[in-house]
Write a structure and sequence with these properties.
six-stranded parallel sheet; Rossmann fold; 19 strands; YaeB-like fold; alpha/beta
């Protein structure tokens, strides 16, 4: 079983008495060897393990004073804290499962000589050179004598766990970034192609390797895909780009031309209709980049893995597995089970058949803190997989909620908000997203006005790039706004209780609400 631990847990572990510390390491080894289903249903023999009431966690008693807080999700066991019983009982600790995953315990050993790099990654000031010649435990102990007691104990903890693999994505400590301020203050084009510094390493990954990049809404997967393509092209590679819709393809083509700014190389764009077309694109290029990869079936990727001519070529797939919920046409009662099976098949194909290295984008920098917190709290329990992203990097947003008794009143309300927004917002900064039926769409367009400054998803594909570049207000169904965003989003949907009980509507809301950067207006329309 995969174990993921938080940075706070590492800090807790370093501060424990030596005997408790040793018990914790023993417990971690036993947890990793255990079956997750057995942990949920039967606990762990020899340890007092039980579910806490009104809390997302299970508690494992280390001894009479300390307990470990953990949470089981699918095949992953998240270790959040190890604290005294009275601290564990406080709501801020036992009800707060928002701490980001810091590292995972995986079947990769941390050699003694790597301890210095690991300590630097956590943020401690150490002389990494001193660790480079460590070849044994005795050498390590000698080097640790030159560290503070706290740093030495933490180094021993890392080494004695023996199977800890600190994620590369968490190594980078982000300083205040002037480019972020400039991008947020720009007229739009700079922000649309802005890559967060924490994701630079993804763009610069080796050309011939294979990766699957997971990210929740707001983590900038599509922008990262553009910069990945640009980096490969600057290196002289012939790149293929595949995505599930013509609109997304045109937006990506336009954005990529701005990022490259005249750099000459070959890039081929395709919306594949079948696996054979995907294979043909991969065969013609040095590296294939796929955006919204969850939209393509596992069988397509299986086909790709069997073609000898592309077996050793590079591949980068960007995906949000929560959005698989929207790809399964089944009744609500069946959808979640079918989606879980599809997610499992999809992940196995990535890791086993294609041998992709999994990486995660965990920083939400496309939504304001207020907007992200709103849709996190609203939808997290309704989605297939918990939203995995850290606190957003800027706070500038607002969420406005109102209700309408029918579609006609909702349309008038949207028109009223548009009138107010026009004071300080341009058309191209606003999107109206409807999660209602086709009849409601016609009412909305007729009420607000079928003006020339609107772009709708009924327009020709030749105008699809206007979603990104033209001075038009976007009026779209959620399926056509996926992958890009607006400063302001007006979303029309069914009441929240109906929304969170319906998996299909929950995923549509997840996509729609996460398109807003600074202002989200939610109009709930009675059924």
């Amino acid at each position: 079983m995969r174990l993921a631990i938080t940075e706070k847990f590492i800090e807790d572990l370093a501060g424990l008495p030596k005997d408790i510390n040793k018990k914790c390491r023993t417990l971690l080894r036993e947890l990793r060897a255990a079956d997750p289903k057995r942990i949920v249903e039967q606990g762990l023999p020899g340890w007092r393990l039980h579910k806490l009431q009104s809390s997302p966690f299970r508690s494992a008693s280390v001894d009479m004073q300390y307990r470990m807080l953990l949470k089981v999700e699918a095949e992953t066991l998240f270790i959040h804290r190890v604290v005294k019983h009275d601290v564990a009982d406080t709501p801020t600790v036992n009800r707060n499962d928002a701490a980001p995953e810091f590292c995972e315990i995986a079947p990769v050993s941390l050699r003694a000589a790597e301890i210095g790099s690991a300590l630097e990654a956590i943020g401690l000031e150490v002389r990494n050179e001193a660790f480079k010649h460590v070849t044994s435990e005795d050498d390590l102990l000698s080097v640790l004598q030159g560290l503070s007691p706290e740093s030495a104990q933490l180094a021993l903890d890392l080494f004695e766990l023996n199977e800890i693999n600190i994620k590369r994505a968490k190594y980078k400590i982000i300083a205040p970034d002037d480019s972020l301020d400039l991008a947020l203050a720009s007229t739009g084009q700079d922000w649309e192609i802005y890559l967060h510094p924490s994701q630079t390493y993804v763009a610069q990954l080796p050309q011939n390797a294979r990766f699957v990049i997971y990210g929740s809404a707001g983590t900038g997967k599509t922008v990262c895909a553009w910069h990945r393509i640009a980096a490969l092209m600057r290196g002289g590679a012939k790149v293929g780009f595949a995505c599930p819709s013509n609109i997304a393809l045109q937006v990506s083509r336009t954005a990529l031309s701005r990022i490259l700014d005249g750099v000459g190389s070959d890039c081929f764009f395709l919306v594949p209709q079948n696996s054979a077309e995907l294979v043909e694109l991969a065969t013609a290029t040095d590296h294939l980049v796929i955006d919204e990869g969850q939209e393509f079936r596992p069988t397509w990727y299986s086909h790709l893995s069997t073609v000898e001519s592309v077996r050793h070529r590079g591949l980068t797939v960007f995906a949000d597995l929560n959005q698989i919920l929207g790809t399964v046409p089944a009744k609500s009662s069946e959808r979640r089970e079918r989606c879980r099976a599809l997610v499992e098949a999809w992940q196995k194909t990535m890791t086993n058949a294609l041998q992709c290295i999994p990486l995660s984008l965990t920083i939400n920098y496309r939504n304001s803190a207020e907007i992200a917190a709103f849709y996190f709290d609203l939808l997290n329990r309704s989605l297939l997989i918990s939203i995995n992203s850290e606190a957003p990097v800027f706070s500038a947003g607002e969420v406005v909620r109102c209700r309408a008794s029918n579609v006609e009143n909702a349309a008038l309300t949207a028109k009223h908000f548009l009138g107010q927004l026009k004071i300080d917002s341009e058309n191209h900064e606003i999107a109206i997203i409807s999660l209602l039926g086709g009849g409601a769409r016609r009412v909305l367009l007729d009420t607000i006005g079928r003006q020339s400054n609107f772009w709708t998803d009924e327009d020709d594909d030749s105008d699809a790039s206007d979603v990104c570049r033209a001075h038009k207000l976007v009026f779209s169904h959620v399926n056509h706004i996926r992958g890009h965003e607006r400063r302001v989003v007006i979303a029309l949907m069914r009441p929240v209780p109906d929304l969170i009980s319906n998996p299909k509507q929950a995923i549509e809301a997840y996509i729609a609400l996460s398109r807003a950067r600074e202002l989200l207006i939610l109009i709930e329309v009675a059924a």
